[in-house]
Design a protein that fits this description.
heterotrimer, A alpha/beta, B mainly alpha, C mainly alpha, A: alpha/beta, Rossmann fold, 2 domains, 6-stranded mixed β-sheet, 4-stranded antiparallel β-sheet, 10 strands, 23% strand, globular, C: mainly alpha
Chain lengths: 277, 358, 327
């Protein structure tokens, strides 16, 4: 298997459960990321296709989170190219990346604790609000219209994720599982082209994991959102994802469908532990 | 029992988003405004205007300004006194240079000038955070006071170095200078305070307010969901300084009439306003009013009790006041970091359910 | 040549002032390292310590102004004076007691609060202490004389006159202050390197959780650190008090330790010293060369603006490490 190449997936193909996978949405080409002398990601290439659920897995310290941070623009790689929707993405500020239509959740929940659930989710739509400062100051024209219009959209997401009862609760008071759900809601509110989930099920019990898996599948199914996720729970990853990238020590050691990855010797070695040369 | 929201259903998102969603609150608010505009102007006397109501309204404007920066956007500033001085000197220069233009326009212009100065000193906030920023705002405080003290152009080369507000009228009524009636002073400040509170409320409940709070709660996450930090912080500095500048302009033009910069707008003024929002409640417009009222009333009360009632020397009473204020700040921070506003909210929650709490 | 010699004298005087700034900054750094509290009240602690020292030396009755007001009798002094050495010792005891009280009444209740809340609490503390100092000892300007030699050092003047043909004016008090500051820093370094408590202190500064897990009492360390900071404040208070009298403006001078810290980094003792010297020299030179042209008194803001401008270009300070942000 040539690791520099991305595992092929025929364009416009339809998955067994009837979802349509489109062309390449995002492509990472020969990405290398260093922190001082430490190489976090070494020469990795892969792509993410429209409509698919793409997982990045690997042991602790493999560089998965760093990879996600490169995609979301928080880290700028020293080498390699990032292509999004057919265009090369130069070095950008994170907030500019967000405006391209990439939203994400965080491994350690990054909600705004001082604000209500509703306000938190509304922040997901900040980039779409166009009212000028003056209109907002006088609560006039677009300011009020936008507020109501976006509220309607946000309420749809609140219904979808079944968090109606907590909409006015300050986020700081919520239990962990619900916080994760609110964070997903905030990311969804941005109507992203690409949704990045950093360990969406970390620290959850089985029931909560099932709920979250259902939401992820539904998001992908109903909104057609492309999803890239990092997850440790192998069972979940294999069930959810269309294709999987496996990382170890900053390198890519496998790429393909769950079935292909499962039978890949390098992947098995990395997970079962073979002495590294 | 008496305070309830049962049956007060909202059928549109517009209704749900209004400032006073509970009907009783709305009525209370309208009643308060009616009293403030229609009753007080007819009964107000010099003592109430100068000792309590006018400073209360002006400080409330400044506190709202600082609360936007500290309470909503999370950028601690210790330069409020300096920014108030900018407003004061701006309105002085404007009104002495262009005496024929309406003073209200000058006050607003003074606010805009202060906003620009505030944004200039806010620029470092992109790179400097937390305590570092707080100390950096001290630079604004000390530099601005020094500037107004040392450059004679700012005080029109007056021999004393003071600035004196000339007499100006509005709608045929004298509103600045020695001949002003208490009612005129009060009404002018009231109009500004209500307008500022309304604008501040609009800004903080919408898009820009969410940007500020997002930056306050977690700046990195805010940036990743699409908030431009420079834009959010600079607008916070700008809007905050705009209000603070208006407060400074009114403080000089309407309240003091004559001012010496180090005395009127020193570091202590910065702390006074900061204490108002800590005690009143960070991130609350109502809290800004409550805190201003508290900090205006406390010295009056202490003076009446300690000096008037117990015959203590004035300076001793002032030191005791320092201790009480200091201790109060600590107590509020320990017991109720969201200040009087939160106490008020909790009381309402209790009242809402009373007498059946379960 | 003359200008150069003048400047050299200005630099030298600036260095001496810088030492004093560094002294105050030292107290900040100690507390910040060990407890993460940015203690705005450090400056007022200097004032309070100096007030207490003068009060004890003069045999003043504590709270005399308050007691007189309440009882109606004029209460002033006990009628005896206390020797300087004993008074310093007693004041040190008072500062330790104060440290203990601050921990019991304030810090214990604010654990786990955001740093900015703690910072604001110390602003409250500053106000309280300022009021307390005035109520306890009276607010009049006091002369502090603990027997430190003062006035222009003739030997320095004579010596420099012989060498450069121009006599340098240096206050003997400044020389003493420099020596004392050096000794104090040396003692602190010895303490933190070679004693058990010192090692515990460094452990706490490094990692609270880890320190707790090896059985170090955080509470004890905090009281210890605040006590040491109180003692440092006392020393700084003595020096400043002897130089310019004990009065409120002392706490404003001490406030200049803040920009010093911004330059040096909040966690670095060498940073505090170097930052103090840079600011001491910088503001004196600026006043000497530029201040005259713009009306003088630039010392009120120069330190802050310098620190601000510096930080914009190097946000981590002189000695701080570059921060890598993570999510």
């Amino acid at each position: 298997m040539n690791l520099a190449e991305t595992a092929p997936a025929p364009e416009g193909h339809v998955t067994p459960d009837g979802r349509r996978i489109g062309g390449v949405l995002m492509e990472m080409r020969n990405i290398t990321l260093r922190f001082g002398g430490v190489v976090a990601i070494k020469d990795i290439s892969f792509d993410i296709r429209e409509g698919e659920i793409r997982a990045i897995i690997g042991p602790n310290g493999a560089g998965k989170s760093s990879m996600l941070n490169v995609i979301s623009g928080f880290y700028v790689p020293q080498e390699g190219e990032v292509w999004f929707r057919g265009q090369r993405r130069g070095p950008m500020k994170p907030y500019e990346v967000a405006r391209l239509g990439i939203a994400r959740t965080f491994q350690n929940i990054a909600l705004f604790d001082g604000m209500s659930v509703l306000d938190n989710i509304m922040t997901g739509r900040l980039t779409m609000m166009k009212a000028s400062m003056l209109e907002q100051a006088l609560w006039w024209g677009r300011a009020e219209r936008e507020e109501v219009a976006h509220r309607e959209q946000v309420e749809k997401i609140i219904d979808f994720l079944e968090i109606q009862a907590i909409r006015k609760t300050p986020v700081g008071r919520l239990p962990y599982g619900l916080k994760k759900r609110v964070e997903l809601a905030r990311a969804l509110a941005a109507e992203p082209k690409l949704l990045l989930l950093d360990e969406p099920m970390a620290g959850m019990n089985v029931e909560e994991k099932e709920d979250m898996s259902r939401f992820i599948l539904d998001v992908n199914d109903e909104f057609g959102t492309t999803i890239a996720l990092i997850e440790h729970d192998m069972g979940v990853v294999m069930d959810l994802s269309d294709r999987v990238v496996v990382m170890d020590y900053g390198r890519k050691i496998g790429d393909g469908t769950p079935a292909e990855v499962r039978s890949n010797q390098a992947v098995i070695d990395a997970y079962l532990g073979v002495a590294h040369e | 029992m008496f305070y309830r929201e049962a049956g007060d259903f909202k059928t549109s998102y517009r209704d749900d988003g209004q400032t006073f969603p509970i009907r009783l609150d709305r009525w209370g608010y309208y009643a308060l405004l009616a009293v403030a505009f229609l009753v007080i102007p007819f009964v107000i006397d010099n003592y109430w205007a100068n000792a309590i109501l006018v400073p209360f309204l002006i400080y409330a404007i400044a506190a709202i300004g600082l609360n936007i920066l500290v309470g909503y956007a999370g950028q601690l500033s210790l330069g409020t006194g300096g920014f108030m001085a900018v407003g004061a000197y701006a309105v002085y220069k404007l009104t002495t240079s262009f005496p024929d233009i309406n003073i209200v326009i000058h006050v607003l212009l003074a606010g805009i000038i202060t906003a620009l100065v505030g944004m200039l000193f806010g620029l470092p906030s992109l790179r400097i955070k937390g305590f570092y920023l707080a100390v950096a705002t001290l630079a604004a405080q000390f530099f601005l006071v020094w500037l107004f003290n040392k450059v004679p152009w700012f005080y029109n080369y007056s021999a004393s170095g003071q600035i004196n507000m000339p007499e100006r009228s509005l709608l045929g009524q004298v509103i600045t200078g020695p001949g002003t009636t208490p009612a005129a002073k009060y009404l002018l400040c009231l109009v500004f305070a209500v307008a500022v509170a309304w604008v501040a409320r609009n800004l903080t409940r919408g898009t820009i307010g969410r940007k500020w709070m997002a930056i306050r709660d977690m700046d990195i996450a805010a940036e990743i969901i699409g908030v431009n930090p420079l834009n959010a912080k600079l607008t916070a500095f700008g809007v905050s300084s705009f209000f603070v500048g208006i407060a400074g302009a009114l403080f000089f033009a309407v309240y003091l009439g004559a001012a010496e910069v180090g005395e009127a707008f020193g570091l202590n003024k910065s702390f006074l306003i900061l204490f108002m929002i800590i005690i009143g409640g960070l991130g609350s417009i109502f809290g800004s009013f409550a805190g201003a009222a508290f900090m205006v009333l406390l010295p009056v009360l202490l003076k009446n009790v300690l000096v008037g009632g117990m015959g203590w020397p004035t300076d001793l009473a002032a030191y005791v006041e320092l201790m009480i204020v200091g201790a109060l700040i600590i107590i509020v921070l320990i017991l109720e970091p969201h200040g009087l506003a939160q106490l008020w909210r909790l009381t309402k929650e209790k009242l809402r359910l009373w007498p059946f709490p379960h | 040549m003359d200008q150069l010699l003048y400047s050299a004298e200005v630099v030298l005087n600036g260095l001496m002032t810088g030492v004093m700034y560094a002294l105050v900054a030292l107290g900040f750094v100690l507390i910040f390292k060990a407890s993460g509290v940015f203690n705005y009240a450090q400056g007022v602690m200097c004032l309070f310590a100096a007030l207490t020292l003068v009060g004890i030396m003069n045999g003043q009755v504590p709270f005399a102004p308050l007691l007189s007001a309440i009882t109606g009798n004029r209460i002033g002094t006990f009628g005896f004076t206390v020797p300087a050495a004993l008074a310093v010792l007693l004041t040190a005891v008072v500062m330790v007691g104060l440290a203990w009280l601050i921990n019991m009444l304030i810090l214990r209740h604010l654990v786990n609060q955001a740093p900015i809340i703690l910072f604001m609490a110390t602003i409250g503390l500053a106000y309280f202490l300022e009021g307390l100092g005035d109520v306890m000892w009276g607010a009049d300007v006091k002369v502090l004389d603990v027997g430190i030699p003062q006035g222009i050092s003739e030997s320095v003047e004579a010596w420099t006159h012989a060498v450069f043909g121009y006599g340098f004016f240096i206050d003997r008090l400044d020389i003493v202050a420099a020596v004392v500051a050096t000794l104090l820093v040396a003692a602190l370094v010895m303490f933190s390197q070679y004693t058990r408590q010192g090692r515990a202190m460094r452990a706490v500064a490094d990692d609270h959780q880890a320190a707790l897990s090896v059985g170090i009492s955080l509470r004890f360390i905090w009281v210890l650190v605040w006590s040491i900071a109180g003692f440092v404040a006392l020393v700084a208070g003595i020096m400043w008090g002897a130089k310019s009298g004990v009065q409120f403006s002392l706490s404003l001078i001490a406030l200049k330790a803040l920009p010093v810290l911004m330059l040096g980094g909040f966690t670095s003792i060498p940073g505090a010293i170097v930052g103090g010297l840079i600011i001491g020299v910088g503001e004196k030179l600026f006043e000497f060369w530029v201040g005259q042209l713009v009306g003088g008194a630039t010392e009120t803001w120069f330190a802050y603006v310098l620190a601000l401008v510096f930080l914009v270009f190097r946000p981590q300070g002189l000695f701080g490490e570059r921060i890598i942000e993570r999510v």
